[in-house]
């Protein structure tokens, strides 16, 4: 197979397995897919014996530990296929020759035992695994794409006696029938006598201890977070716009240094459970500032939450901490004009953008349908209900609509279902811009401006500021290989690249005329439509395009200025 050559440019969105850019996850983080635990570095090692070398400069989730979604899918299929082959071989050998001395080792390889060295005695053979254990071991759920092989298996190792060609499914059916016959003959040989039931003899065996139920992963992470908060100097906070809100008294501060001083002076003594009260019943992550991270007991400084947790566990004998599970906290180091991710060192224009990005490092619940990831299982269920239930639902009133157009019409007309709400008077709006304009015009609030923290440029529009910061002060942009222009997203780059390539991939199904862009084709299709959108107000002549109406007005009604 010819290898695919590609031009590689190192960056924060490069996959370690294919060097592609796009949607990616951390290769050593624990994720959950269809209820199963996945760590992609472990799957690479177990399936292919491939170990990934990490950068010594970066910690967990650094740029050298990323893997894209297509590679995850291929790795998942390969790991599942290896497991299937091992289990099928094990099952086949058990039922093909029950007296055979061959067995599978722990690594899935065949281990042969010489029959001359083993004395065989007739003993009562019990089933090695119960039905439940077999189902857990070999999963035949919907996620199994491959079934047992139907073709006959005729080639075996040299030490195994030759057999006739057999079908694995027939062997399994025959073995089950043989077991039934054995059990029926045993019952006939020892008929039950009609006697009084004797009391069961007391046995000296102790009752089996009940297995402890595993505590949910979210509960363990939350308990770890509570202990770290109790014994370290992390600063928990909530985010309200540009301000950090105290989890204890709800005061808001725009300057992170002032917020930390408030926590040191006002909340030196605190109740741990209060910091988690805003979660309710959700298994969420607590945002914490780790700028002055120290142990409260011995004042030893630390850089990472994992280090201080290990210190508390070993040095201060806090055995309630479970170091095998994660800590239910998201770490930050926030300063007034520097918003940098503590995990991957990526820069952002505002604290809001930073918090949204940091959350992406902890999204472990993946949608089986579209592949989107979410922070909690509750958020994933909400997404499935809204997006994949087969119904068009309004997320505010939960009304159901037959088509997407009806839903959009409802959201446009129903003011109660508008997303944005004025914090002063409670009026609702369907866009963030209209809400801000209302606050300036009606409540005389100052018009917001956006100052670039790196170069000091001031913008009146939030979108323009974010675009400027992304293009000028980060590497998160897309560069045209023809002219070197930068773009904020891939869609704009692809739209621009057509100017250089001249490709016309959108063809009209009526007249076969080709266009470079989809919107140009849609505008062209009005020519073939019986409905004309633009009508002359004087002579009632109809036109498919506005430019045609303008030309008509200039030619036939030059004295009319407005139309």
Automatic annotation (TrEMBL):
Keywords, comma-separated and alphabetical: DNA-binding, Metal-binding, Nucleus, Repeat, Zinc, Zinc-finger
InterPro entries linked: Znf_AD (IPR012934), Znf_C2H2_sf (IPR036236), Znf_C2H2_type (IPR013087)
PROSITE patterns the record matches: ZAD, ZINC_FINGER_C2H2_1, ZINC_FINGER_C2H2_2
Basic residues: compositionally biased ranges: 209-219
Pfam families: zf-AD, zf-C2H2
Sample GO molecular function, one term: zinc ion binding
Location of the ZAD domain: 13-95
GO cellular component terms attached to this protein's record: nucleus
Amino acids binding Zn(2+): 15, 18, 68, 71
Subcellular location: Nucleus
SMART domains: zf-AD, ZnF_C2H2
The C2H2-type domain, residue ranges: 339-366, 365-393, 420-448, 450-478, 478-505, 506-533, 534-556
Start and end residues of each stretch annotated as Disordered: 134-155, 179-219
Feature: compositional bias, Acidic residues: 134-151
Protein name (Swiss-Prot/TrEMBL): Zinc finger protein 28-like isoform X19
Record organism: Galleria mellonella
Gene name tied to this protein: LOC113510145
